[in-house]
Amino acid sequence: VMRRNPFGMDICCRKGSRSPLQELYNPTQLSNTAILHQIRRDQVTDTCRANSVSSRKRRVLTPNDLKHLVVDEDHEMIYCYVPKVACTNWKRVMMVLTGRGKYSDPMEIPANEAHVSSNLKTLNQYSIPEINHRLKNYMKFLFVREPFERLVSAYRNKFTQKYNTSFHKRYGTKIVRRQRKNATQEALRKGDDVKFEEFVAYLIDPHTQREEPFNEHWQTVYSLCHPCHIHYDLIGKYETLEEDSNYILQLAGVGNYLKFPTYAKSTRTTDEMTTEFFQNISSEHQTQLYEVYKLDFLMFNYSVPSYLKLE
Questions:
Q1: What is the CA radius of gyration of the chain?
Q2: Mind telling me which InterPro entries this protein's record contains (predicted)?
Q3: How far apart are CA 231 and CA 223, in angstroms?
């Protein structure tokens, strides 16, 4: 049976149980939450349309573009993970969902294990027909965060923590070499004292853009998850992480035994912290940086931060 629904999507009805997509687009009772997610979807669609020249660049997605999309066959869901937006906990939850009983408590899974790629199946591992079938029929979701708060979070994690030596070697040394006048030999060798201003200068440097794609920790959501090419059914926000996550788990039919892990992190990057980091960035650099992340701001409805001094 094909049923039209108020949101204009054809959803084929299974006998008996309702799929997550049916529950989302034809809710048993229309909730404010369903309406909120519809507004978020519309915002993405409108932004893609308004910026179609820059956002669509009529290209076809390749399997390589799909390596951030984690597939859960049992619950027919696809999650696009964005680093620095609770992605460790969401990967843990996906391991519980796809583990067929191997795990029951997400927080018992060590963080480093959640990032082992073989522990989760990603969409790029399927054939083209299988990919298309899943993109069409599975419930797709992602989580987003205020772009500059996410950026500061990535900087703090990757460049100010002593243990992240691989990042210091791979990116820090390059940033110091390119952005710091009269750098010491030690700084050039270690790359472990990158200043936020230098990181920003590196991000807006046209040379960087030409040389290689951004690392996933500071790549735009728009480039990681391709929301103008892939229609996401749910867009969760870091600011409402718990409610949005538990709504998704409820739609998946697992809400009664699986809750999204909550934890009060005292070290998490806040708006005040982000404001402070941007104090020393020139208005010219702020403007250029905003341009880099502009689609993420518009698409996910984040206003221009009040601390910015845009030119």
A1: 21
A2: Carb_sulfotrans_8-10 (IPR018011), Sulfotransferase (IPR005331)
A3: 14
The dihedrals phi and psi of 147, each to the nearest 5 degrees, come to -55, -40
Domain assignment present for 231: yes
Residue type at position 244: D
Q: Which of 34, 31, 56, 35 is nearest to 45 (CA)?
A: 56
Tell me the pTM.
0.91
Residues 233 and 92 in one domain: yes
Strand ranges, E, within 126-256 = 139-144, 234-237
| Residues spanned by the domain of 262 | 20-146+219-267
* pLDDT tens digits, 16-62: 467 888 888 887 777 888 899 999 999 999 999 998 766 555 567 88
Count: domains in the chain: 2
Report pLDDT digits (tens) over 269-281: 889 999 999 999 9
d(CA 267, CA 167): 20
Contacts of residue 179, Cβ cutoff 8 Å, sequence gap at least 6? 198, 201, 202, 205
State both tokens at 63.
């399997």
